[in-house]
Design goal:
By secondary structure, the chain is an alpha+beta fold. It has 2 domains: about 50 residues; about 150 residues, Rieske Iron-sulfur Protein (3-layer Sandwich). The strands form 3 sheets. Strands 1-9-8 form a 3-stranded antiparallel sheet, with no helix packed on it. A 3-stranded antiparallel sheet has the order 2-3-4, with no helix packed on it. A 3-stranded antiparallel sheet has the order 5-6-7, with no helix packed on it. The N and C termini lie far apart (about 85 Å). About 25% of the residues are buried. About 10% of the residues have low confidence.
Length: about 210
């Protein structure tokens, strides 16, 4: 720095009432604060992400929320829980009424095998809400995934009133996931633990004792 520049710098420092040491200290504090703020921001992002269940957490059984208001009557929505497909069936009134008409064709019509559903789903529809069925979409024979055959008749024959058919070995299940007699599958489809957070928000993976 030239003598003229040095004199000017000293004059500027004196005019603001600050010494050279004060200016250097102030600049250091400003720089430190800026670096600290950036550090906090960098830490905050991973923390926020950690609040969202990871894919590993979901596979381990983290609860899954499903908006059932989007499921049209007579259709099925597939969600994923613990790496398995879970079918949410919005049964029409006709479908729900049909559940009581074929008990003689089923292996376990009254859901007596307690390992296949929570106690609060030990009923004809194996569900909390009469029209909404929730079952794991894996055949209880050898683990294949059955096919939706929701409409009566069709390629399933005149006596078929809707349900699920496993193409691997021919197991048949009704609209509550109850297995038909003569099927290779020994028991009904599994009903996972679930509860309703609101009228249309279903939480799969958490038990409840609530009634609809």
């Amino acid at each position: 720095m030239s003598d003229n520049q040095n004199d000017k710098h000293q004059t500027d420092s004196q005019s603001c009432g600050c010494s050279q040491v004060d200016l250097e200290k102030r600049n250091f504090l400003i720089a430190t604060s800026a670096v600290g703020a950036l550090g906090c921001a960098a830490v905050a992002v991973p923390f926020v992400k950690s609040m969202t269940p990871s894919e590993r957490a979901k596979a381990a059984g983290a609860p899954v929320e499903v908006d059932i208001s989007k499921i049209e009557p007579g259709t099925v929505l597939t969600a994923e829980w613990r790496g398995q497909p879970v079918w949410i069936i919005n049964r029409t009134e006709e479908m729900t009424a049909e559940l009581s008409k074929h008990h003689d064709q089923l292996s376990d019509p009254n859901a007596e095998v307690s390992s296949q559903q929570p106690a609060y789903c030990k009923n004809e529809g194996r569900s909390i809400k009469p029209n909404i069925g929730v079952v794991v979409g894996i055949c209880t024979h050898l683990g294949c995934s059955p096919t939706e055959k929701l409409k009566a008749g069709g390629d399933m024959g005149d006596g078929w009133q809707g349900g699920f058919f496993c193409p691997c070995h021919g197991s048949k299940f009704d609209l509550a996931g109850r297995v038909f007699k003569g099927s290779p599958a020994p028991v009904n489809l599994v009903v996972p633990p679930h509860k309703y957070l609101s009228e249309n928000l279903l939480l799969i993976g958490v038990d409840t004792e609530d009634k609809a």
